[in-house]
Amino acid sequence: MQHRSSEIAGSRVRIVYAVELNFEVIAPTDFIFNIHASRTPQQSVTGESFVTTPAVPVRVDDDPTFGNRLGRLHAEPGPLNVRYAATADVSHYTSEPSLLFAVPPAELPPAVLRYLRPSRYCQSDRVSSLAWQQFGHLAPGYEQAQAVCTWVRQRTRFQPGTSGVNTSALDTLDAGVGVCRDFAHAAISLLRALNYPTRIVTGVDYGADPGLGPPDFHCYLDVFLGDRWYLFDPTGICPLTGLIRIATGSDAADVSFATTFGQVRGTMPKLSFTAVEDVAAGIMLPYPTSLAISTVSVL
Question: Domain 8-90+257-281, what architecture?
């Protein structure tokens, strides 16, 4: 299927990002960390460091399923401090939303088909009636996808501490409260029910109101339209142009910042990040926009 090119003037941003994680290891434990900034044709990563105290052997592998960069290590009992830092330069593919249309499932690239299916936290097969009742009158495309995200935002209160690791999209749609991963799961489920390949992406909450809490990881969406993935944020707390890409997956089960195989106690992650402007290099500060933003093609 041929798609009309919709690209207009793009932009580039630079985000300097750091995270610190602290654990008390009770028994010998293996760790998988999903905190490395993603490397894609539209996101370059420089100045990268991954340090542990005490120093232990570490390795970084590329996940062949989602392309995530996984830091792996083994730790013996005692305190463990993990620090990661990097600079991510993101190039935006910017499009006019009215030119972006949904692709019929029969014509989708094989690489995106997995993101039509229900997953652990996104029970799209159980919200089909709701999705078509609420949004079936809208033409398939960017407008319909944005309407889903706006609907989730308007009926869900952002409140830390109101959900947990077992909270699913169904729980969030019923309770009407949650944090960014809950907003993402609700929107993903509805969009998949409407035949949009949709996946979760993690980044940092650059530009969020400090009243929502300290700097943190952030969950948003990739929705496949035309021939690319486009960014959507059901929370609306961050400008799309300020979103970096850390991990990508079907839902939160694929993008957890730390997975442990042993007995461990952890504390909340400590994040810091800032945007850097470099006019001479064509790098600007993140900005609000009504245009459609893409930071990756088909992956």
Answer: Sandwich (2.60)
